[in-house]
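[Discussion] Sanity-checking designs against the backbone

I'm trying to build intuition for which residues belong where. Below is a C-alpha cell string of 469 positions. I'd appreciate it if someone posts a full sequence so I can compare it with mine line by line.
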C-alpha cells in the first residue's frame, strides 16, 4: 500500500481499510469488484509502463456509472503520472480539473482536502521538472474556484498561502505581491479574531521574507513592527521563527547587534520547537551577533543552545567563539579558512565576517601596543597579517574614540603613544596648583589690607584636583 491508499484510509470516515469492502450488498456487485481490480492492475503498471497505466486509469473513470471513490482515486493517480512521470503538465491540469468535480459529493471532505493538498505540494515542489509559471498558477486558480464554489473558506485560504509560498520560492515577487493583497483582503473580512490574527501572522511572515530578499528594509521594518501589534493569535512556531529571523537580520543591517541577538535567539527557540532544520543556521546567526556585541557571555551556556554545541555544523562556530573570547585573531582566521562550507558559504554570515574580524583585530591591537611607547606600523601590519593602510585606519579610529592616547607620525609611519601620568605625579601637579592659588589669595588679602587691593577674587579659581588625587 502506498501513501495514496494510506491517505484514503485516513481521510474517509466510512472506511477502516484501504479496500472498499463494506457490509452493503452493493459493494459485492461484480461491477465494483471489476473496477477495484482494474485500479490495482493499473497502479502496478505506473512505474514500468506509465502510458498503459494512464489508459487503464481513464478506463476506470469511463466505466464508473456514477462518480465515486474509484473514479476519484484513478483521476488522482492519472494526474500524478502525467505530471511527475510523463512530464505533461497541461494534460495533468485537465485531469486535475476533472478530479475537482468529484470533491462535491463523491468522496469525503477530509479525504478530498488531503488529496488536493498533496497534489499542490508536488506541483509546486518542482517534482515534475521545469513547468511554465502560468500552468502552475492555473492549478491553484482552478483549486480556488472549486473551493469557493464549495464554500470551503479555510482550505481556500490555505491554498492561497501555498501559492504565495510558491511565488516566494521562485522569486516571482510581483505575483506574490498580488496574492498577499488578496490574502489581506480575505483576512480583514474574517469575523473570528483568533483565526484572523493567526492567518495575519502567516501573511506577515511571507511579506517580511519578500522585503528581506528584495532589500526593501523600510517596508521590512513596517511589517516587523506590525507583527508586534497582532493580538489573539496562536501561530505555528515556524511562522514566529521566520518573523524573528528576518527581524534579527534587519537589526544586523542597522548594526544593532544586541537587538539582533535577541531576535535570533527567539527565532532559534521557535524553529527548535517546530523541529525545523533552519534552527542550525539561525543558531550560527545568534553566535555571530553575540560576538559582534563584544559580550563575554558564551551563547552556548543557555540550556536551549547547549545541546547543539557538539553538532558538526555548529562546532566551527563554537571554536570561533572560543578564539574570539581569547582574542586569538590568527586562530579565528584559521577556523574561517578551514570551515568554509559551514561558515563562509552562507552569504549573510560572509557579509558580517569583515566586521567580526575587524572587531577581533582591534582588541588584539589594543593588547599588542600596551607595553610600548612607539611602534612601526609595518610591524603591526605583520602581526595582524593585514595591509599597513588597514592598520593605520584602525589606529585612527581608536585614537578618535579615545581608546588609545597617541599620534601617528605620517613621515616615519610610526605610532607614538602618550603614557598617562602616574597617580603620584598627578598629586604633585595638583599640589603645585594649590600652592600657586594660595599665594595668589595671600597677595590679594595683603593688598586689600593695605588699601591697595581691589578685591581680587582669584581664590575662586582654586584647583580641586588635590581632592580628587
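Best answer:
Here's mine. Compare freely.
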Amino acid at each position: 500500500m502506498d501513501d495514496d491508499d494510506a491517505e484514503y484510509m485516513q481521510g474517509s470516515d466510512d472506511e477502516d481499510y484501504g479496500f472498499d469492502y463494506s457490509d452493503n450488498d452493493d459493494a459485492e456487485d461484480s461491477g465494483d469488484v471489476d473496477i477495484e481490480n482494474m485500479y490495482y492492475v493499473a497502479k502496478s503498471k505506473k512505474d514500468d509502463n506509465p502510458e498503459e497505466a494512464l489508459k487503464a486509469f481513464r478506463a476506470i473513470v469511463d466505466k464508473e456509472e456514477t462518480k465515486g471513490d474509484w473514479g476519484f482515486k484513478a483521476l488522482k493517480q492519472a494526474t500524478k503520472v502525467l505530471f511527475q512521470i510523463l512530464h505533461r503538465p497541461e494534460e495533468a491540469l485537465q485531469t486535475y480539473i476533472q478530479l475537482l468535480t468529484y470533491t462535491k459529493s463523491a468522496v469525503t471532505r477530509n479525504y478530498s482536502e488531503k488529496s488536493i493538498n498533496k497534489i499542490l505540494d508536488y506541483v509546486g515542489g518542482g517534482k515534475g521538472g521545469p513547468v511554465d509559471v502560468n500552468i502552475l498558477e492555473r492549478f491553484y486558480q482552478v483549486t480556488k474556484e472549486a473551493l469557493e464554489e464549495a464554500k470551503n473558506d479555510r482550505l481556500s485560504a490555505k491554498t492561497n498561502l501555498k501559492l504565495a509560498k510558491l511565488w516566494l520560492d521562485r522569486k516571482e515577487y510581483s505575483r506574490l505581491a498580488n496574492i498577499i493583497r488578496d490574502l489581506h483582503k480575505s483576512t480583514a473580512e474574517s469575523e473570528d479574531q483568533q483565526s484572523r490574527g493567526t492567518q495575519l501572522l502567516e501573511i506577515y511572515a511571507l511579506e517580511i521574507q519578500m522585503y528581506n530578499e528584495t532589500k526593501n528594509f523600510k517596508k521590512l521594518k513596517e511589517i516587523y513592527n506590525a507583527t508586534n501589534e497582532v493580538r489573539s493569535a496562536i501561530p505555528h512556531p515556524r511562522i514566529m521563527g521566520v518573523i524573528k529571523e528576518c527581524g534579527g537580520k534587519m537589526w544586523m543591517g542597522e548594526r544593532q547587534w544586541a537587538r539582533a541577538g535577541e531576535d535570533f535567539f527567539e527565532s532559534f527557540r521557535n524553529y527548535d520547537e517546530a523541529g525545523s532544520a533552519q534552527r542550525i543556521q539561525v543558531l550560527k546567526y545568534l553566535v555571530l551577533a553575540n560576538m559582534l556585541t563584544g559580550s563575554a557571555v558564551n551563547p552556548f551556556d543557555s540550556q536551549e543552545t547547549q545541546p547543539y554545541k557538539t553538532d558538526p555544523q555548529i562546532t566551527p562556530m563554537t571554536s570561533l567563539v572560543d578564539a574570539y573570547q581569547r582574542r586569538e585573531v590568527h586562530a579565528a582566521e584559521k577556523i574561517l579558512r578551514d570551515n568554509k562550507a559551514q561558515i563562509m558559504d552562507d552569504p549573510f554570515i560572509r557579509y558580517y565576517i569583515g566586521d567580526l574580524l575587524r572587531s577581533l583585530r582591534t582588541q588584539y591591537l589594543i593588547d599588542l601596543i600596551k607595553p610600548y611607547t612607539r611602534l612601526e606600523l609595518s610591524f603591526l601590519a605583520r602581526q595582524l597579517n593585514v595591509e599597513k593602510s588597514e592598520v593605520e585606519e584602525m589606529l585612527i579610529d581608536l585614537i578618535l574614540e579615545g581608546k588609545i592616547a597617541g599620534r601617528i607620525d605620517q613621515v616615519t609611519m610610526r605610532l607614538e603613544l602618550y603614557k598617562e601620568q602616574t597617580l603620584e605625579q598627578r598629586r604633585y601637579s595638583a599640589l603645585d596648583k594649590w600652592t600657586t592659588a594660595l599665594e595668589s589669595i595671600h597677595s590679594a588679602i595683603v593688598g586689600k589690607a593695605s588699601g591697595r587691593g581691589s578685591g581680587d577674587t582669584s581664590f575662586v579659581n582654586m584647583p580641586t584636583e588635590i581632592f580628587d588625587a
